């Protein structure tokens, strides 16, 4: 708690410096930016926002001109503003629409900002401008561009927390047992997000990392604590003392949490191989939150269990009713339903009344737990094991069908047309489309250094060739750095299609590969296609080319870790393959919903490419979380196999022992992640949907169908490992010891030794 308070104070004093930064290698768009920096003072290399306006009386109306000029004047004293292009400048006529129904009524100004401007500062600038917007009849002003976009802090984690409370109470039947995982998760989130804010001051961390940390921290924090609390309660039910139960829970479930959490951290840090600061910032931030959550689960949680003691089994009606009311109030906060928020004070009233009102003071009676061989999970496993081939083939086929859309995956950045319709960002985008065409939202720049004595007629031929391309709506005349002695040239090009359209990507590729190469020899230099759209395209291609290295590293390392843990070749191989199936199926769902636009009426998602970093981030998180369930389940199965030597019953017993906790943990994650589809932001929706889908498929089709079926088919061969390899591998025990080990060395009655009443807990081998 001291670390949390101290960290919060330090973070508050230091502030944060979130920003997007793409340190691309020497791709063509970066070469073009270098030319612009060296020869044109960096013009065109910054982040561009727009002030778009429509005036029914015409943009040349004196009152309109005065109002718009006053808005643009607000940017004059902003040090982060590099350049302002106004439609009222001497050469600003091109910024006024001259065709279509908006001719003379729609215009825009470009506001170029420093590329290193942090998001909080851009948001502050936007807020100042919005507050000062004049009210002129017939005049409508919108702020466009991603840098001026409105970003609402996600609130859906509140809904996820409400569902988690309900699921945990249903799983545990205890309010105190429910509160422990929630408390640990909130602690991990608090310290983790504080750490992310501090990290943003020393490395490039995007603003999105905070949301991602909250999403992951809430899910894994509850999951890890849930596993430990479940094992603690099992030990209490077995007649052990509180100290013994805590020690055994950490010696078994705690080991699994440490290993599974480390797998998640390794998967996330695998993204460092991408060598892009934006991606590396996301990876380190997310891994930091998970690491802090692991630490909280292994330190704070045992301390809280020590305070709770055997009261973790005691639930009174006042606590149960109050917890339900709190969950209802959280739903009201998450959905913005103010009447439901009254549930919070009512919960307080119930707790106070419970001190005096007899029925509220009564203890909730729980049914005793069933023996493992009488549970639904045990009977389910035996049923699956009776038909292993049918189950395995049908399950794998279902996942493969869901994964089919992956073959149409197109990586790229969505544009402002994917913002909600009521946002100023979306309305500015649509005004530009109406007045100038969609390409004005994503112009290209072409830059080239000129050798001494360059043929200017050849430069003019480049202009003509670009203008002749069917994908080009407008190309400016060649602009030289020094008309008298030019050493560099730049062209402004407006495509006929929007920034995210596949036709725009094809235009960039066609210009680079077909249109420009035949002309570059004549002017004696290469022409670089650059600009924001070209950077996004190059970034997508670069990440795509690095993905195989990332995937291979994570898969290989996970295989090796599981092989060491379970002393088997086939178990880790199956785990890797089955996790790939569930991740591939979740990718397929994402492509269908977000790229193809299926169910867009329900989801509110317009079709667009998939953000190039999202599949990689989803893979790292989902693969790590899938390994969590794999470790939880297989370690229990192996524990039973060591105890009984029966490969068949060990699967059923292991599934029966873990099904409840895996189901509860998965349900919590599905609700937490799935609730984010209610957000307005497309990226938030995409990440939430992908994570929820992958966890749902993993906990149902993989864990409940594929695992028992394949374990039955392989039998004792599941645990086969060549002897020579067994001798080489280090010993890594994540199963621990389910029972305390008795200390047999305590002398009694003058020298004879007999078991001591209080057990001494030992770990390791």
Structural class: alpha+beta
Mean pLDDT: 86
Main sheet characteristics: 5 strands, antiparallel
Which residue ranges are poorly predicted, with pLDDT under 50 across at least 5 consecutive positions?
741-765
Q: Strand tally, please?
A: 11
Note down, in words, how this protein is organized.
- Mean pLDDT is 86; it is low at 741-765.
- The protein contains 26 helices and eleven strands.
- The chain has 765 residues and is α+β, with helices and mostly antiparallel strands.
- The strands form three sheets. Strands 5, 6, 7, 8 and 9 form a five-stranded antiparallel beta sheet that branches.
What attributes characterize this protein structure?
7% strand; 4-stranded antiparallel beta sheet; single chain; alpha+beta; 765 residues; 59% helix
Summarize the entry for a quick read:
The protein has 765 residues and is α+β, with helices and mostly antiparallel strands. The protein has 26 helices and eleven strands.
Mind sketching the topology for me?
Elements: H1 2-14, H2 28-39, E1 47-55, H3 62-73, E2 81-85, E3 106-113, H4 119-131, E4 139-144, H5 156-172, H6 175-199, H7 208-237, H8 242-269, H9 277-298, H10 300-308, H11 317-335, H12 343-353, H13 358-361, H14 376-386, H15 388-403, H16 424-436, E5 444-449, H17 456-468, E6 472-475, E7 479-480, E8 488-495, H18 502-515, H19 517-523, E9 528-530, H20 532-566, H21 570-595, H22 600-603, H23 614-644, H24 647-674, H25 682-714, H26 723-728, E10 747-748, E11 752-753
Antiparallel strand pairs: 1-3, 1-4, 2-3, 5-8, 5-9, 6-8, 7-8, 10-11
């Amino acid at each position: 708690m001291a670390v949390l308070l101290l960290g919060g104070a330090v973070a508050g004093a230091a502030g944060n410096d979130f920003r997007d930064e793409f340190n691309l290698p020497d791709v063509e768009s970066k070469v073009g930016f270098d030319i612009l920096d060296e020869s044109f003072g960096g013009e065109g290399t910054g982040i561009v926002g727009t002030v778009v306006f429509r005036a029914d009386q015409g943009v040349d109306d004196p009152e309109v001109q005065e109002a718009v000029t006053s808005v643009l004047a607000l940017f004059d004293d902003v040090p982060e503003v590099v350049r302002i292009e106004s439609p009222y400048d001497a050469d600003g006529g091109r910024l006024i629409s001259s065709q279509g129904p908006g001719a003379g009524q729609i215009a825009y100004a470009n506001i170029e900002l420093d590329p290193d401007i942090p998001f909080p500062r851009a948001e502050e600038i936007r807020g100042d401008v919005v507050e000062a917007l004049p009210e002129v009849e017939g005049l409508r002003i919108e702020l466009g561009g991603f840098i001026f976009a409105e970003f609402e802090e996600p609130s859906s984690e509140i809904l996820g927390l409400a569902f988690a409370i309900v699921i945990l109470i249903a799983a545990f039947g205890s309010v105190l047992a429910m509160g422990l995982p929630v408390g640990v998760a909130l602690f991990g989130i608090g310290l983790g997000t504080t750490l992310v804010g501090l990290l943003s001051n020393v490395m490039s961390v995007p603003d999105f990392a905070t949301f991602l940390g909250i999403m992951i921290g809430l899910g894994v924090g509850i999951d890890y604590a849930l596993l430990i609390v479940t094992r603690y309660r099992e030990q209490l039910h077995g007649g052990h003392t509180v100290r013994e139960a805590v020690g055994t829970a950490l010696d078994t479930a705690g080991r699994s949490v440490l290993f599974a959490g480390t797998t998640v951290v390794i998967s996330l840090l695998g993204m460092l191989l991408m060598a892009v600061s934006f991606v590396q910032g996301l990876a380190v931030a997310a891994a930091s939150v998970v690491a802090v959550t692991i630490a909280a689960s292994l330190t704070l949680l045992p301390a809280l269990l020590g305070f709770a003691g055997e009261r973790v089994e005691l639930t009174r009606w006042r606590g149960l009713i109050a917890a339900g009311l709190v969950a209802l109030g959280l739903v009201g906060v998450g959905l913005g339903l103010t009447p439901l928020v009254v549930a919070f004070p009512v919960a307080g009233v119930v707790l106070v009344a419970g001190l005096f009102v007899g029925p509220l003071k009564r203890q909730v009676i729980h049914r005793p737990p069933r023996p493992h061989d009488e549970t639904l999970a045990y009977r389910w496993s035996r049923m699956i094991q009776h038909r292993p081939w049918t189950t395995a083939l049908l399950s794998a086929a279902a996942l493969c069908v869901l994964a089919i859309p992956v073959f149409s995956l197109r990586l790229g950045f969505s544009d402002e047309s994917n913002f909600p319709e009521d946002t100023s960002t979306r309305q500015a985008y649509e005004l530009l489309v109406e007045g100038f065409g969609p390409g004005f939202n994503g112009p290209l720049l072409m830059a080239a250094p000129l050798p001494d004595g360059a043929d200017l007629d050849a430069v003019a031929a480049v202009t003509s060739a670009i203008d002749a391309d069917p994908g080009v709506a407008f190309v400016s005349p060649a602009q030289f750095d020094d008309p008298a002695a030019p050493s560099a040239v730049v062209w402004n090009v407006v495509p006929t299609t929007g920034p995210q359209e596949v036709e725009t990507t094809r235009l960039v590729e066609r210009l680079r590969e077909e249109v420009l190469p035949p002309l570059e020899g004549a002017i004696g230099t290469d022409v670089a296609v650059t600009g924001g759209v070209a950077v996004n395209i190059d970034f997508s291609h670069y990440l795509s080319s690095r993905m195989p290295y990332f995937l291979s590293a994570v898969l290989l390392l996970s295989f090796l870790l599981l092989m060491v843990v379970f002393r088997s070749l086939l178990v880790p191989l199956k785990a890797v393959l089955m996790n790939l199936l569930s991740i591939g199926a979740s990718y397929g769902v994402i492509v269908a919903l977000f790229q193809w636009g299926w169910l867009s009426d329900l989801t509110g998602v317009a079709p667009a490419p998939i953000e190039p970093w999202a599949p990689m981030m989803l893979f790292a998180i989902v693969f790590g979380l899938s390994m969590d369930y794999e470790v939880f389940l297989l370690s229990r199965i192996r524990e039973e196999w060591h105890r009984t030597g029966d490969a068949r019953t060990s699967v059923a017993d292991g599934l029966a022992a873990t099904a409840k906790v895996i189901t509860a943990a998965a349900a919590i994650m599905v609700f937490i992640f799935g609730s984010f589809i209610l957000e307005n932001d497309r990226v938030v929706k995409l990440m939430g949907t992908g994570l929820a889908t992958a966890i749902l498929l993993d906990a149902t089709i993989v864990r409940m169908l594929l695992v028992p079926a394949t374990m039955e088919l392989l039998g004792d061969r599941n645990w086969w490992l060549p002897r020579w390899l067994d001798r080489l591998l280090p010993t890594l025990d994540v199963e621990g010891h389910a029972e305390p080990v008795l200390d047999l060395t305590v002398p009694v009655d003058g020298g004879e030794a007999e078991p001591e009443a209080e057990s001494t807990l030992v770990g390791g081998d």
